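Thread: "does anyone have the structure for this chain?"

Original post by V.I.:
We have the sequence but no experimental structure in hand. Need at least a predicted one for the grant figures.
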Amino acid sequence: MNKIKTAVVGVGIYGRHHINAYLNNPEVELIAVCDSDVERCDSVANELDLPGYASLLALLDKENVDVISIATSDPYHKEPALQAIEKGKHVLIEKPLATSVADCRVIIEAAEQHGVIVGVDFHKRWDPATIRVRMATQEASAGNIIRGYISMDDVIAVPTTWLGWSAQSSPVWFLGSHCFDLVRYISGQEVKSVYAVGQKRLLATRGIDTWDSVQSTLLMEDGSSWVVENGWVLPDGFPKDNDGRIAIVCDNTYIRSNSQDRGLEIVTPERTKTPNSYFITYRDNVASGFGIDPMNDFIKAVKHGTPYMATAHDGLQACRICEAVHMSLESGKPVVLC
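Reply from O.Q.:
Generated one for you, tokens below.
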């Protein structure tokens, strides 16, 4: 059986998870890696005994590849996506699809023109808790959604230490894109209008010009409303690197999900940790969990024609909401999504 040949662009924190997924998928052959950071690229390539490229165009010229995984920084998805698509390659892109609606549309138009699949790694759709929440809202006995709430926050080390490009992004793009996608996924509704408020204080004192925290109110097509909260300034002493919660009121059902506490505690002299063992767990150097499932499902979509759960259209819709949130933050007024 012919294997799907893949390459990963961007071999940082999350790119390494893509690499591990493909190395351990029996239907996949990982043939190369690419990263503009030459030192990092060479280090990973040597570790894997694979070709490493600082340029995706060079990789595409020399390697026979079917799928390109793009795990570059938020603002740098468009260029590698278009380079791969124009060579007829299927592309899996880390969220967000792009950081402007215009760029998303260009990617989608190119994919349609070249007849390739573009998927977005909205891995929260694969979270068993999210799947169960969605099932609960779809039960006839629940009735209609009246209001919803989703929060996703990171500790302040994420924008100040983990990411060297946080000033070029925001908690809206980095975290909110997940949340807005979940609002659409869970509710089955599109967003009609957005009103957002936020603060720029803590990160600004550290020389990072982006939002600390943003609250967004979304009015849906059916008249229901959602509040989405995203921030990058939780204290580093928080038990996890991130926090996430969902609460939904329906006509006859109240649903709550706490992603912060998944039932595991590890207590040390320094702190108590509550890691999410369902997200990505490594056993004998093999990663598993809902953070890995999207990569394997994308391979199934390419090889077997199965539907992929998070399409480029979903990426575009989440981007539209992110962009509207930023417009509302700047104008201080609600923004209608046409």
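V.I.: this helps a lot. The two ends are 47 Å apart (CA to CA).
O.Q.: and Residues 312-331 form the longest helix (20 residues).
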